[in-house]
Write a structure and sequence with these properties.
It is built from one helix and two strands; from the N terminus they run E-E-H. By secondary structure, the chain is an alpha+beta fold. It has a two-stranded antiparallel ribbon. It starts with 33 loop residues before the first strand and ends in a 26-residue tail after the last helix.
Length: 100
């Protein structure tokens, strides 16, 4: 036997970029944002702190560009640079349907 009734469910309807305050709600109806996260544990200078920064696509890639520049600066005098900046942080490409 099915018993039907109405229930109220709270859901995320939009995520605002923490940098530029723009909506990340795409015209297709989905949310398109990146997230920078940190959870600092025992022994870390920021032990017990947790961070979560939501970024729109534009601000996310500006942040990635900044990190690439920092990596170049940190390694500017290294004789043997083994890390490529081209794909910093990229773990999948052409992943259109949420696969792992």
């Amino acid at each position: 036997m099915k018993i039907r009734g109405r229930i109220e469910v709270e859901t995320v309807t939009d995520v605002l970029c923490d940098v530029c305050d723009s909506s990340t709600l795409h015209e297709s109806g989905g949310l398109q944002y990146g997230c920078l996260e940190a959870r600092w544990g025992y022994g870390a200078k920021h032990d017990g702190e947790r961070y979560e920064v939501h970024l729109c696509e534009y601000c996310f890639f500006k942040t990635i560009a900044y990190l690439k520049q920092q990596r170049r600066i940190e390694n500017i005098f290294d004789d043997q640079v083994t890390k490529s900046n081209e794909h910093l942080g990229l773990i999948a490409k052409n992943e259109f349907f949420g696969g792992e």
